[in-house]
Amino acid sequence: MLYIHSTSCISAQHTFDDVNLVVLNPVEENKLLAVEPNSNQIPNAVLRRMGKAVRMGIKAALSIVNNQSELKGIIIGTANGGMEDCIKFLNQIIVYDEGTLTPTNFVQSTANNIASQIGLFTANKNYNITHVHRGLAFENAVIDAMMLIKEHPLDNYLLGGVDEISTYNYNISLLDGLYKNEEVKNNNLYEIETAGSVAGEGAAMFLVNGKKQNSLATLRAIQTIHATDEKIIASNLKDFLASHLADGEKLDLFLSGENGDCRLNKYTKITEKIADTTTLRYKHLTGEFPTASALSLWFACNFIENKKVPNNMVKTGSIPTEINTMLIYNNYNGIQHSFMLVNR
Amino acid sequence: MDKEQLKLQLKQQIIESLNLIGIKPEDIKDDTILFGEELGLDSIDSLELIVLLERNYGIKINDPKEGRKVLVDINTMADFIEQNTTKQH
To answer: Which of A209, A232, A258 corresponds to the end of one domain?
Structure first.
């Protein structure tokens, strides 16, 4: 059990300062690029070296860790870290024949740079770790936080998920079929029956501990699965709900990781059927990326806290007047699946 | 290329390689101290400048003492390039 006390989110939509999930920023060239907020907390001398993933991670983190009691740990999930800097560095190796290589791109490219920079900015020398399990990077960060909180329920932890779009990686993933070849808009992503989705990026951060008092939401349970057979996903989901829902307890909302890729519809269809409640979708707002599930948890917290769900996210059913229990399902590339059960 | 052109080129290269946000070549005077309060460069930047000299002008700085004398301002860098350059700039 993990209690969420504060959240922040940087995405392609208005999720940071004045949250507005009704007026959407459009998909452009099949990408949903994150809108970075201005920040006067990061000196220009430091900011100029940072890649987008690092900037997003730090800005999202600083907005919730300031004025908080000391963090006992910074736990970040990122599949790719500073991918753009990584590619620049690799290109330098080729162009300069392994000769004159500059340190900045290399330093910025390492996945653990996001968590370590947050540690530097907050002068925090406690537990600092980065989980990089591709499409389950954020989920593994959650599991880590849950285990720590089970042992130290009074301690505060910063938990987050961050990933950026890099041009090179986008092109590789496009060739791999992860993104659609035809132009897509926010409102027709799920209607085009082709392979692939749209690319996305973003950062979501959560201040968590084991104290229920004054919490925004509760993450009751999480499960990760590596599988391609939808029957395995279905049986795991049934077991997950049977284990964690009380007798007679129903789900108020199901937040699906459906991303418009027709090859993955078998997973979302079967999970939707088992959830048997109002289904929401979010990837037309965020795009697809390995840690998009971090943003799905932010959406769940936002709905529970504000008791409002934008109509553009509703796939089937009606929005309940009370939102107490939500199930989040995500899958990345049809291989890495996760369930999260979130409560008021 | 005359000395003034070299200095302007050097300023443009420094701004680009160090990603100096919001700074234009005309903001850097020939005698602006590179490291410290004026331009605010740090030790990582010194490595970037050493690489810049090697990549763009074919000059290697192997002795840290030499680096301290060269990377003072645009004047000292331009003088050093003129004295040691092996590439057409």
So the answer is: A209
Cβ contact (<8 Å) for B18 and A48? yes
Within chain A, strands assigned E span: 2-10, 31-32, 71-77, 127-131, 156-163, 199-200, 202-209, 217-226, 253-256, 278-281, 314-316, 325-332, 336-343
B18 contacts in chain A (CB < 8 Å) = 48
Pick B54's closest partner by Cβ from A47, A49, A100.
Answer: A100
Instruction: Domain of residue A269: give its range.
Output: 217-343
Tally the domains of chain A.
2
Q: What CATH number corresponds to the domain at position A289?
A: 3.40.47.10
Do residue A159 and residue A230 come from a single domain?
Answer: no
Pairing verdict, β A202-209 and A2-10: antiparallel
Measure CB to CB from residue A44 to each of B21, B54, B55 and give the nearest one: B21
Domain regions of chain B by residue span: 1-20+49-89
Number of cross-chain residue pairs from A and B with Cβ atoms under 8 Å apart? 27
- Confidence (pTM): 0.92
Q: How far apart are the C-alpha atoms of A171 and A191, rounded to whole Å?
A: 23
Measure Cα distances from A306 to A102, A145, A309, A324, B71 in Å. Answer: 47, 25, 8, 12, 56
CB contact under 8 A, A48 and B51: no
| Contact residues on chain B for A44, CB-CB shorter than 8 A | 21-22
pLDDT per residue over A259-307, tens digit each?
999 999 999 999 999 999 999 999 999 999 999 999 999 999 999 999 9
**Which ipTM was obtained for this model?**
0.75
Q: Give the neighbor-by-neighbor strand order of the sheet with A325-332.
A: A127-131, A71-77, A156-163, A202-209, A2-10, A217-226, A336-343, A325-332, A253-256, A278-281, A314-316
